[in-house]
Design brief:
mainly beta, five-stranded mixed sheet, single chain, globular, Immunoglobulin-like, 1 helix
Length: about 140
């Protein structure tokens, strides 16, 4: 009886653990961001997973910041810690570069990139595949 109870507990614990993983996998994503052919430095590149049909949970968002050459690499923070890359699957992509002027109460912040590339109005999407993903974003000011 105790062995059966123990095996039942182990089976349930294993099932819950596997369900928690959800079979999700991460893949490396990197590339460059340019605006009118010039590198975009200090931009935030964010990959927001799109939930699959019939599911409510989309998954963890991945992000990275561009360097002076416009290069980025994504990382995802999960409950288990940092993972390199982004979840495999479809994503909405936001690329944002903020400008600011002034200090303290007199500071002003604005978005430098056109609205079709960032926030809720972004028109960018990308599907992350298993293995290496290289995605360059060639943005236009008009």
């Amino acid at each position: 009886m105790r062995v059966r109870l123990l095996l039942s507990f182990v089976f349930v614990a294993l099932f819950v653990a596997l369900q928690g993983c959800g079979g999700r996998s991460y893949a490396p994503v990197s590339g460059t961001v340019t605006l009118d052919g010039k590198p975009v430095a200090n931009a935030d590149v964010t990959f927001i997973p799109i939930a699959e049909a019939g599911t409510k949970e989309a998954g963890d968002t991945a992000g990275g910041k561009t360097n002076e050459k416009g290069e980025y690499k994504l990382k995802t923070y999960t409950p288990q810690g940092w993972k390199e890359g982004a979840l495999v699957g479809k994503h909405r992509v936001s690329i944002s570069q903020l400008g600011s002027k002034g200090e303290g109460d007199r500071s002003v912040t604005w978005e430098k990139l056109p609205k079709q590339y960032n926030g809720e109005k972004t028109e960018l999407t990308y599907e992350v595949h298993s293995g290496e993903n290289k995605k360059d974003w060639e943005l236009k000011s008009r």
